[in-house]
């Protein structure tokens, strides 16, 4: 029986759950404050988006920029403030899943589901990085809770919350649309769900339609910008026809043991029903959780087989998978506790390395962050070269370097502009920061890790300047070529 908030068991549920959440939150914020690792690549790009609030951006819907913008408005532009929303949203997801687990099963299952989620390897890692998944998963979990309420006779207040969760999820990442596929499958395999919506079918439809209207400003933005985000999403799929990539499939499937943890992912696979008869014999709760996890994993596994798939592309499968796996393992709680202990141990090692990267080199004999450069030093050298050259315009042709330098130079009076080698828009900076001589002047400092001939040929004069070494950790160095370019040819 599910306890009410005022029942004797309610304290058992809320007290340890909130203590765990607050303890993990404190540790992770401490790590964010102490780490010397600067913003890199995508994180820095999202920060630049947040400086120009809009309804859309080249590769993502707008919610991540809004979240960073709000956080940095409150706390300033330090790295920890940029990453803070991810940390908060991951904890929030755990709390929502705990409430759903309590509703579906009992207090103990809900409590362990929340704790397991908050300590998952992927969650421990991504809590230190600003990403769209952190936002998406909170709204996905909230939509799961509301969907369960609606198929069990929920009211119009539940419809409103479902609409908000679905709409904000779409504005976090288009993968929120998987929810519709999973909901449809749930109705197919669950007689209980169909019966619950027999006299209530209009409510979830209204919820999804209202939520869908929240993405319309982003659709308008895409239409006004040549469907940039849609095109980028299609490019990410990298479909190359019917060619089976078993190596990519193996890489993706293997990565899920790291994302979910080896014990939990193995238990999840073993508890799945693989025949129609076994599916029919499942409880309503298990059908619900399978419908919102297995289709996503199968879809992304198929994508990995046909082209490729990143480890996080199946992230929306794991809220329901967490609840299902914890429920199955409640009869053998030692496995849940062993998994949590393993995940906490791995997280502590990770956090120690993040806070003291130099110490990790001495202890491990290798640098886990060997490819991460210190952009503060690079920015200082670039600024000095610009001042010596008498120009305030930097011309760049690499997205990741543009993003990282834009953050590192955020307090400097320098203008960053992107060079487009062809007519195709390949990233945000080619769309929003494109170099135009008539607006930016014809005297610029070129900073590039690539060949310079094509760019130099577009100017009347080029002066070679000393290159800058981009020091990656553990000796992984790259060279940034510098040229003072004058007289842009129109």
Features:
490 residues; alpha/beta; 2 domains; five-stranded mixed beta sheet; 26 helices; 5 strands; 63% helix; globular; disordered N terminus; Glycosyltransferase family 39 protein; membrane; glycosyltransferase; transmembrane
Residue share in helices?
55-70%
How confident is the prediction overall: mean pLDDT? Answer: 89
Q: Indicate how many domains the architecture comprises.
A: 2
Question: What is the number of E strands?
Answer: 5
> Shape, please?
globular
Question: Your description of this structure?
Answer:
By secondary structure, the protein is an alpha/beta fold. It has 2 domains: 10-357, no CATH class; 375-488. It is built from 26 helices and 5 strands. The protein has helices spanning 10-34, 41-50, 63-75, 79-104, 107-119, 121-126, 132-151, 156-172, 178-189, 191-196, 202-213, 216-224, 228-237, 246-260, 262-271, 276-280, 284-291, 294-306, 318-329, 333-355, 357-364, 375-389, 399-408, 428-432, 437-440, 453-456; strands at residues 393-396, 415-418, 443-448, 459-471, 477-488. The chain has a 5-stranded mixed beta sheet with strand order 2-1-3-5-4, covered by helices on one side.
């Amino acid at each position: 029986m599910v306890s009410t908030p005022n029942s004797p068991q309610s304290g058992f549920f809320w007290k340890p759950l909130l203590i765990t959440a607050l303890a993990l939150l404190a540790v992770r914020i401490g790590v964010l404050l102490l780490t010397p690792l600067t913003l890199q690549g995508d994180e820095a790009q999202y920060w630049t988006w947040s400086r120009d609030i809009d309804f859309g951006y080249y590769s993502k819907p707008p919610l991540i920029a809004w979240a960073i913008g709000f956080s940095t408005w409150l706390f300033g532009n330090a790295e920890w403030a940029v990453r803070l929303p991810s940390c908060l949203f991951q904890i929030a997801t755990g709390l929502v899943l705990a409430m759903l687990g309590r509703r579906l099963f009992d207090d103990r299952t809900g409590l362990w589901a929340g704790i397991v989620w908050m300590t998952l390897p992927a969650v421990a890692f991504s809590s230190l990085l600003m990403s769209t998944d952190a936002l998406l998963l909170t709204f996905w979990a909230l939509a799961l809770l509301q969907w369960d309420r609606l198929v069990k006779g929920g009211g119009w207040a539940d419809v409103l919350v479902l609409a908000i969760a679905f709409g904000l999820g779409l504005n976090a990442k288009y993968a929120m649309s998987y929810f519709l596929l999973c909901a449809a499958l749930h109705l197919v395999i669950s007689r209980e769900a169909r019966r619950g919506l027999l006299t209530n079918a209009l409510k979830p439809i209204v919820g999804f339609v209202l939520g869908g209207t929240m993405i319309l400003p982003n659709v308008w933005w895409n239409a006004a910008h040549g469907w940039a985000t849609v095109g980028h999403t299609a490019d990410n799929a990298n479909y190359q026809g019917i060619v089976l990539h078993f190596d990519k499939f193996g890489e993706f499937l293997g990565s899920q043991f790291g994302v979910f943890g080896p014990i939990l992912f193995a238990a999840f696979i073993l508890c799945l029903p693989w025949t129609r008869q076994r599916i029919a014999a499942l409880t309503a709760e298990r059908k619900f959780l399978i419908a919102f996890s297995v289709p996503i994993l199968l879809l992304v596994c198929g994508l990995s087989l046909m082209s490729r798939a990143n480890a996080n592309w199946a992230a929306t499968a794991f809220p329901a998978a967490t609840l299902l796996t914890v429920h199955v393992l409640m009869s053998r709680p030692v496995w849940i506790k062993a998994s949590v202990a393993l995940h906490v141990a791995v997280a502590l090692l990770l956090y120690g390395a993040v806070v003291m990267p130099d110490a990790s080199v001495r202890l491990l004999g290798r640098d886990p962050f060997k490819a991460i450069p210190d952009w503060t030093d690079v920015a200082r050298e670039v600024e000095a070269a610009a001042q010596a050259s008498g120009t305030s315009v930097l011309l760049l042709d690499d997205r990741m370097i543009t993003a990282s330098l834009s953050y590192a130079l955020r307090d400097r009076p320098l203008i960053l502009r992107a060079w487009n080698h062809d007519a195709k828009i390949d990233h945000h900076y080619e769309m929003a920061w494109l170099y135009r001589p008539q607006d930016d002047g014809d005297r610029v400092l070129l900073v590039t890790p690539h060949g310079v001939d094509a760019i130099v040929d577009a100017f009347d004069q080029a002066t070679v300047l000393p290159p800058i070494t981009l020091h990656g950790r553990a000796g992984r160095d790259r060279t940034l070529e510098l040229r003072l370019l004058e007289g842009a040819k129109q």
